[in-house]
Amino acid sequence: MMNPGVLLVEDETQLAQIVKDSLEMRGFRMFCAHNGQEGLRLYRQHKPDILVLDIMMPDMDGFTMATEVRKTDKSIPIIFLTAKSQTADVVKGFELGGNDYLKKPFSMDELIVRIKSLLGRFQPAPQPETDEIIIGQYAFNYTKQTLTRNNHKEFLSHREAEVLWRLCRHRNQVMERKSILMDLWGDDNFFNARSMDVFITRLRRYLRDDPRIQIVNIRGVGYKLIS
What is the DSSP-derived secondary structure letter of residue 41? Predict the structure, then answer.
């Protein structure tokens, strides 16, 4: 990808300038905003290739901005910058559609490596031919991110919907764990693998009322959706 566009949304002016200058020196096209509202405007105007979002910002934080972006764009890679390191905060970022996170303070080399990794590895899954997929007694709407059974509707997070869609594409076949991790997280490291386990556990809970449906763990390989 030649001269990829990076939208940086960071309210610390000095840090934003350092990141902007460093990335521009390496050939990236930079768009910068200091809050989520301004970031959304620039995102819609310029359609960058990747988003780098600070979490704690005035007016609109990074989590809220990511949620708005994911309503219409499920494929653009998102990196969160955060001063928080608690597992719950990181998992929330992944739930909302983030692909990676970087804890402050960070080195520019590490940020650049992560940007290049996501731009090089991230491949969005083919879109479903229909919005609704039947899984046993459930109707899964990928676009609306809902799972419905007997008029009860469960609203899925972005990441839950993405994982379930991939399992549905390989229904009754083994879906390699590494494939899902590289596709959605951009890295198959231990922490990302544990995060994915959280989403698999939640999907099993959502589908538990139909005993014919199982998400089976194939040890050392991945998962299989049986229905």
Answer: H
E-strand ranges in the chain read 5-9, 29-33, 50-54, 78-82, 100-103, 132-135, 138-141, 146-149, 152-155, 174-176, 214-218, 222-226
5: helix, strand or coil = strand
The pLDDT tens digits of the residues spanning 82-100 come to: 876 666 777 788 888 888 8
Which of 77, 82, 86 has its CA nearest to residue 62?
A: 82
The model carries a pTM of 0.61
For residue 3, pLDDT beyond 90 = no
Going by the DSSP 8-state scheme, the letter that residue 106 receives in this structure is -
Listed residue (59, 71, 73) closest to 7, CA to CA: 73
3-state secondary structure of 46: helix
Average pLDDT over residues 155-164: 88
Which residues are CB-contacts of 178 (< 8 A; sequence separation ≥ 6)?
188, 222
Omega within 30 of 0 (cis) for the link into 48: no
Decide if 147 contacts 222 (C-beta within 8 A): no
